[in-house]
Amino acid sequence: METGRVSPMKPKRNTSKKNLVENVSEPLIGQNGLSTSPVSPSGNILDSVILATPGLKRRLTRRMIYTPAKYKDEDEYIGFATLPEQVHRKAVRKGFDFTLMVVGESGLGKSTVINSLFLSDLYKDRELPSVNDLVERTVNIEKKQLEIEEKGVRLKLTIVDTPGFNDAVNAGNSQKSLIEYVDKQFEQYYEDECGLNRRNIVDNRVHCCLYFISPYGHGLRQIDIETMKKLHHKVNIVPLLAKADILTKEELRRMKNRILQEIEENHIQIYEFPDCDSDEDEDFKQQDRELKASIPFAVVGCNTVVEAGGKKIRGRAYPWGIVEVDNPNHCDFIRLRQMLISTHMQDLKDVTSDVHYENYRALHIRTQLGSAQKERGKLKRDSAANFEALSDTEKLLEQKEAEIQRMQQMLAKMQEQLKASSPQQQHVNGLGKL
């Protein structure tokens, strides 16, 4: 071992059902190789939203465990090699936050998939609405918070459910509540950043949106296209094909291709996986390729345990066989859980912070500056109007003063004439007396 270096140890991959350990990844630049810049190339701060930087992409690295190395000569050891350990201890002590939004119409198994992902029962008290309630049902926002601890790592998980989405007869404004909620979280985070207590900011921003697509149609519906087009600039969208067990393998393949084609035709930006590091082993690269090829994830949710072949498995029993939830040959549920929890959770948070929130922040500052400029323009116009009114008043005063001066001059002339005529009048009066 060379002096002044730390020997990283690659741990075995943990494939447990509740692997919520955060990954330590390299600093991100932005989604699709986009970088955030405070000033645009034109030098105008108003145009600085997200600028593309060619050749700069996000990288996905696995969590590395650093062990302190022993050195023969202590004089050659500086000590900064323990910085990753310090960052790791601080992050574990603070804990992690993650907010997940679930969007989709009723009956697609959203609650079952969420319970299967986090091995919990978050919707045990939910009551199904009646037919009369569905006629004019509005979209509600329901938040469920769950604190999970695994191997000393604490995760505060927030599930944002949207019951009522696309359930009413007229569902044209179903996405309005979703957009308002996402913007409200950005606004609250911006106010906390600008406030006095910046050390204890609670991050309630939506880091990922699981969008459930119905398997009963022939691709995306119009409501799906409109909703994703209004959300893709605000949140990371991960499309899911719900209830994949009702489709054959050939139907599933055609459905996935159709969904991807419609997403591309409508210019919808879904979450893109970062590239894998070149020095990773072949197994990790193959796993990354499988995750990218599984989009949209075909999921099957189930919380019941059945017995097959002498062992208990989690799945659904049908007359023709059993669909195993954790079997990658039956559905993509295990790949979704691996992506969402084990490998890409930190990347989802970084993209939210570096891309979506920065876009909102730049737009918010631009709007504030535009409002300030309009206010200043209004004040200038009002000042000009007041100045014109004042000028008219001054002109009237000047005319009055000129008129007064003319009258004073006329009065002075009349007095002089009276004075000049006074001696002559006295002389005439004297002659009359004689």
Automatic annotation (TrEMBL):
One of its GO terms (biological process) is cell division. It is found in: Cytoplasm. Residues 418-428 have a biased composition (Polar residues). It comes from Biomphalaria pfeifferi (Bloodfluke planorb). PANTHER family: SEPTIN. Residues 1-40, 414-434 are annotated as: Disordered. Belongs to the TRAFAC class TrmE-Era-EngA-EngB-Septin-like GTPase superfamily. Septin GTPase family. This is Septin. Residues 94-367 form the Septin-type G domain. The keyword Heme does not apply. InterPro entries: G_SEPTIN_dom, P-loop_NTPase, Septin. GO terms for cellular component: cytoplasm. The keyword Membrane does not apply. It comes from the Eukaryota. SUPFAM superfamilies: P-loop containing nucleoside triphosphate hydrolases. Keywords: Cell cycle, Cell division, Cytoplasm, GTP-binding, Nucleotide-binding. GO terms for molecular function: GTP binding.
